[in-house]
Amino acid sequence: MNRSKQALVLGLSAVLLWSTVATAFKIALRYLDVFSLVCLASVVSACVLVCWLVAQGRMTELLTALRNQPLKYFIMACINPLLYYVILLTAYDLLPAQQAQTINYTWAIILSLLAAPVLGQRLQRKDLVAIAVGYLGVVIIATEGSFHLGAIQSTLGLILALVSTLVWAGFWLANTRLQEPKDVALAAMFVMSCPVAIAYLAYGGGLAQLSWQGLGAAVYIGLFEMGVTFLLWSQALSRAVNVARVANLIFLAPVLSLVLIQLVLDEPIHPATVVGFALIVPAILLQQRDA
What SUPFAM superfamilies does the entry give (predicted)? Predict the structure, then answer.
């Protein structure tokens, strides 16, 4: 199998796994509170990423990163996974899965707003058009096409879903300044999140009501939202002959996710979600054109 086919197989595998995450979030939240879920999944993901580096004989890279810059990685860990996933999962807890997951994809749009002052980039006309079109899609989804504030199922949930995009875009920009390889940096963040996660689970009552369903859901999310899937995706991009072609596979994930949301969660997909999604994706693609 040549590199191009390897990249396609790895990319599609990552997309298929990511498409299950919105459904997994909602199922997991039936059995666990948000903090317990984030903490358990973070520990699982840390184990996966450390095992990956051990298998590659690169554990010294992780230890060097943690020894040289422990405070930096602790701060980054507090942002991702801890803060980001607490905000995101709380939004999922308050909103229908179809709304939370589709709005979450607008992080790529807000990235351009943050990149302008942080990276010294100028906002172009296409960026402004993309922002307007993308957030029109958000309004349609949130109000189920009525454009009435009273139609919003949870104002707090909507605010948190939007804040999660801001946090993730900010984290992404900060991550571009890291000199370590992406897998080493991510492993360092998850390892540094473990003391906080374990302390909460041990002393915050996170394990008191733990069921096998909750544990299974947390392990699944730790594996396939935070850990294994990231490795598959990064390997796909590193092997790709045409990176843009592989990167665009990511837009299959929310489509497949909507199908799973309806089939598994029995959550009817509102026509407004489809319309909003049909605005958000072209807005993101417009921003990426000639980027």
Answer: Multidrug resistance efflux transporter EmrE
**The pLDDT value given to residue 228:** 93
pTM for this predicted structure: 0.93
Q: Which residue has the tokens 């948000």?
A: 34
Cβ neighbours around 199 below 10 Å, total: 12
Q: Tokens in use for 211? A: 């069921």
Q: What is the CA radius of gyration of the chain?
A: 19
* Contact yes or no for 137/276 (Cβ under 8 A): yes
Q: Which two tokens stand for residue 247?
A: 């990167």
CA angle 246, 250, 251 (to 5 degrees): 120
Buried b (16+ CB within 10 A) or exposed e, 96-124: bbbbbbbbbbbbbbbbbebbeeeeeeeee
If one counts the domains in the chain, the total is 1
CB contact at 8 A, 169 and 137: no
Task: Give pLDDT tens digits for 21-59.
Answer: 999 999 999 999 999 999 999 999 999 999 999 999 999
Domain residue limits at 13: 3-288
Q: Please, are residues 239 and 104 in contact by the beta-carbon 8 Å criterion? A: no
Tokens representing 245?
Answer: 């072609």
Widest distance between CA atoms in the chain: 56
d(CA 13, CA 228): 10
Identify whether 96 is preceded by a cis peptide bond (ω within 30 of 0). Answer: no
| pLDDT at res. 63 | 97
